[in-house]
Amino acid sequence: MRLRMGAGAPGVERLAAAFDGRAFAPHRHDTYAIGITTHGVQSFRYRGARRACLAGQMHVLHPDEMHDGAAGAPGGFGYRILYVDPALILAALDGRPLPFIADPVVGATAIDPVLLQGLADLDAPLGDIESAELVGGLADMLGRLDGSIPQAAPGGRLPVAALERVRRLIADDPATRHTAAALEAVSGLDRWTLARQFRRAFGTSPSRYRTMRQLDLARAAMRRGMALSEAALDAGFADQSHMSRAFKRGYGLTPARWAGAVAAR
């Protein structure tokens, strides 16, 4: 058995796990458990039936539902998972009741990218803005799965001026991690609406927009000859490793390789 805790936030835990044979005895959480099987077959008993979650599939366990876990095939299994306080999901749903997913195993095509992003780098800091984006996306995904939220995104006019104020605040000082409360204050929108509408307006989330502007700062610093460790801190990353992971996701290259290629021109 191997467990690795990731960076979390209030009401949100992230975990990677790998097991051989029987993983754990029947138990229940007071949170949503939303995960993706990374390898093998995850077998578990849930609401009176034995289920199997294959690699690439998602499992969604409702709070307070009994379940166990075991390998469903030789070679063991692994997964990455989020444990989310249902109070956060409820807040993001703006008065709608908590979703209940009758079939806990969900195919890959129904997985929202926000979950994949939330589980891709468990060590990435999860501040209150990132947490709001993650929880809001999960709430929408769960609502679509249980039918309480339409599959198509709602239309309507965007609060463009408010969203532009947020974008400008981030762009003017990407090295600073602005709080969700600060973005709410400048926009007049709650954090859940802000995360949804920002993506509709600009094609990306506030946190992702900030990361790309941080990488702009880091690239400029590297072109001036600044050391990678200093460039990372100057751009507001936690450390060089944090910057390197973000850089490779953004450009497909490590910072060192990018800097070497630029210097060679």
Automatic annotation (TrEMBL):
GO MF: DNA-binding transcription factor activity; sequence-specific DNA binding
Domain called HTH araC/xylS-type: residue spans: 164-261
UniProtKB keywords: DNA-binding, Transcription, Transcription regulation
Record keyword Kinase present: no
The UniProt record lists the keyword DNA-binding: yes
InterPro entries per the UniProt record, alphabetical: AraC-bd (IPR003313), AraC_XylS_family_regulators (IPR050204), Homeodomain-like_sf (IPR009057), HTH-like (IPR037923), HTH_AraC (IPR018060)
Record-given protein name: Transcriptional regulator, AraC family
UniProt lineage: Bacteria, Pseudomonadati, Pseudomonadota, Alphaproteobacteria, Geminicoccales
